[in-house]
Every structure is written in structure tokens, then in C-alpha cells.
Amino acid sequence: MHPNDFHQLNHSFHNCLFSNLSKSVLQDYNLAKLELSQGDFKTASENHSLVFKQEVPSAMGNSTIIERWWFVTFASFIVVLLLFLNHSPGNNNISVLQNLTMPIEAFNGFPMHKQSPMPPSVPLSGLQNSKPALPCLQTANLPDLSDSVKQATTSFQQPSGLGDAKPSELSDKIEARTADSSLVSVLEAQNQEQPKDNDDEVPVTMEEGRKCNIFEGKWVYDPKESPLYDSAMCPFLSETTSCRRNGRPDKEYEKWRWEINECLMPRTCWKGLEGRVVIVGDSINHSQFESLACLLYSAIPGLSSFDARNRVFRAESYNLVIQFDWTEFLVEVLVNKTDGKKTLKLDSLVPTARKWKDADIMVFNTGHWWANRLRWDFFGYKRKVFADMKIETAFKVAMKTWARWVEKNVDTSKTTVYFRGMSPPHFGKNWCYKSTRPIMDESYKLTFGKSLKEIVEQTLQAMRTPVKYLNITRLSQYRVDAHSSIYATKQGKFLVLRKQKPPTMVADCSHWCLPGVPDTWNHLLYASMVLERSKSISTTLNILT
Known about the structure:
The chain is of the alpha/beta class. It is built from 13 helices and 19 strands.
């Protein structure tokens, strides 16, 4: 009701009910009405009461008039109160606020929102889904992105000499052959024929897109926005990654975030992360799996489940299942039942590869275990067994076996494949024991696994099926402070006590604490998903804020 309507109604009440009141009564009533229109409800009510008790003529002094007056006064008070509440300054309809959108402007060719009062719920694919969208994680300064993940798209060349030999079973009785076998010589010769890339973070052979590379940047100390979850509240962390639970006294290693040089990180909302995600690799890739589970669990507490035995995280309300397949080499390992000797079958993937099929997202990694020759005894290739072979040669054959499987089994219209680069350990001069700060020297480089890293990049370049390369090696090598160090346990016992050796000899400088560096890998995984699917999104790119 408009305030003018109220005054007209009040005037009609006055003419109808109080035409026979005495002059003094009318004067007091008019004064009360003025007070009422000015919002002095208490004074008006008291004055009206006083007037009617003292000056209503006895001829009209029956209880009916007084009761009617009190009814009118009370009704008027209610109407004014409703008008006041409905027209008070600053009161807006909340449904209007929820639909506000901020102006959009272009940044490096990508439109973005400066700000948004609440995260939008548009999936990355651009299609509305009946399932609710995963909520955003609250990170700082996350408004923009640009092309960054370099994609291997060059034409595939069939490796000469390897052919299409089908995997064959090796007998338990292994006959070791000499290293100067003609087959080994051919394989090693092929390995030497391939030119090596330079040591740039992004190989020159990768497709050149926009110059904003999400893997080039610096670590920024940001205690207000990091970490994104509490390790004590995440039930999925293993003994290797639960550093604070294992007694690590400092927390500073959790408070660094990766800041890209030439563009800003997209808000990590996980929109579009749906279907089946398969992560395959060694224990370090398992840490990435744990990190992703904890990040999602913190965003949707109570709406997910975790099967530790089968290593499966489920958020069925969001149509999301994340699985981990533990395989250190990607290729099959045969163990002799008699003497326990191990043979790497370089031309055969692990039997569990059949479970990878039809996943929506695949994340692969291998490399660390290849650097330690003591982890296996023989090499198997084309029904032959070899006692010795250069690591680079064997690794290259294994990577080509994996590449052929991807070419044959991955439907690129359904599945996106990622390969995570090698995670750097910190041994020797840059020992991680007692380190509490990142390495700030940007020129610092590790040499661990350099030749294996080059083979990975060469393999991805030669593939017909596009594979996204998560090149996290260099950005991770600065984080000497973030390893598990001595704050890791095995079967409930600290490594220092278990091995009865000094801390400097047992510090784990390969695995990472969580929260920590693997969280950044997953943020970059999400950023690459945004880049991959941005072409199918409307030009407003509502996932950005």
C-alpha cells in the first residue's frame, strides 16, 4: 500500500466514526494523527488512549465507541508498520540480487567476469546437467586464463622395427640373454637416432598456442588463502602424506600458491569434472589422487564416499567417480614364482589396462621407478628376455607400448588424456631434511630424470591421439620444503624408528606432504580442462569470476 493511500483511508475513518466528538477531542486526535504519520507510534498510541479516557462525552461513553477506536488504532498501526518494513532504505528483493551479473570484458582474447556475487553453475561442456555442479574452491586472485597447456598434435609415425607384435606370455623359467643381442642393439640404435629436445620447460616441438603458459610462474606466500583443506579433516590421506598428523611442527609449507606469470589462474570450481576419472601411476600419482579426493571432499562434505581398499572416490550426487590404478611402470611386471626375479614386459601393458577404457578423463604418469635399476631384474620384449638394456631404451619402448594402447582404445570424442610430468626429488646438495622454505632462485634446475622427461615429450609429440602434458617438473623443483621428509610412517611406525638410522639417511625427499604441491597439480589439471573445453562454451565464459 502506498503511504498516500493510508492517509486517505485514515481520513475516511475520521469522518465516519468521530463526527460527533468534542472539539478538544478532535484537536487531540489530529495531533495524534500527525505524530502517527511521523512514525512516533508510541506517543500517538498513548495520546489517543489519554484523550478517550478523559474527554469522550458521556452521551457517547458506551464501550462500543472505545472498542471501535482501539480497533482502528491497532489496524492503523499494523498498516503503517507494514509500509515501513516494505519501504525501508536499502531493502532489496534477494531474488534480484542473486540474478545480478557483472560486466564482461575481454582479457587476452578470453572474456571474463571481474566479479560475481556467487559462482555460476554452468558446466565446462556448456550443457546443463541434471546433476548439481560442484562448488568452487575459495582461492585468491583467480579471474583469468589463457592458452597454456601445450598439446602434442603432430602426425603419428609408426616406430620402425617394433611392428605390431602382440603381447606374449613369458614362462616362469627365464633364460637371460647377453646385452649384445642384435635386438637390443637395434633398439638402442633407434633410441640414439631421435634428436633430443632442449631443456626448456615447454619443448619447442610442442604445438605453439597462446603465450600464457600456466606452468611458468612463481610461488607466492599466501597464508590467508592456503591451504584449501585441513589435513586433519580429510580421511583419505595415507601414511606418506600426512605430515602434520605425523608430527611436523611447522605449517608454512601449506601456505604457498602458484602464481602464473602472464595470466591469472581460473577459479577452481570443478564444474565439468564429471563422469569417470581414472588416475594411473606410482605412489606419487597416488598422492595426486588423494589430493583431488580431499579437495572435492572439502567442497562437498557429507556428499561423497571413499573406498580405501579399491581406491575409489565417489560423489554420486554430482555424477563423479575417481579411481586410482597403482602401476609403477605402466607395462606388465612378471615375477618368477621360484626365485622372485622380476621381468618388465616392455611390449605389454598391465592387465588392469582393460579397466581404463571408456573413462571420461585419464591421468597417467611413470618415471620414478625407472630411475632405479634395482627394482627389476630382466627385460622382456618379443618373447625374448634380456639381462641388460639401457634404461632410456627400455623406457622408450614402454612409452611406445602405452602410446599404441591409447591410439587403439581412446575415443577422443569422449575421453581426454593427460600425462603428468616427472615429480622432482631433492637429494644431495638440496636435501629436503629440515627445509622450511622454497628455493627462490629461478635459475635453479634439477637434472633428475632429464633423459626420461625428454622421452615422454618425444612420445607425446609423435602420437596421433592428442594428449595433454601436465609439465609440473620445474614448478615443483622449487618446493624443497614440501616433501614428507622424516614425517612419514610405514605400517604405523616412523621411518626413522623403523630403519634405525639417522634422519638424514631416511628422510623421504620424493613424496609430498598434503596439503601441498599435488594440490597445485590438480589446480593446473582443472585449468587445462578449462582451456580444452573453452571452445565449446558460450562467449560469456561464465565459469570465470
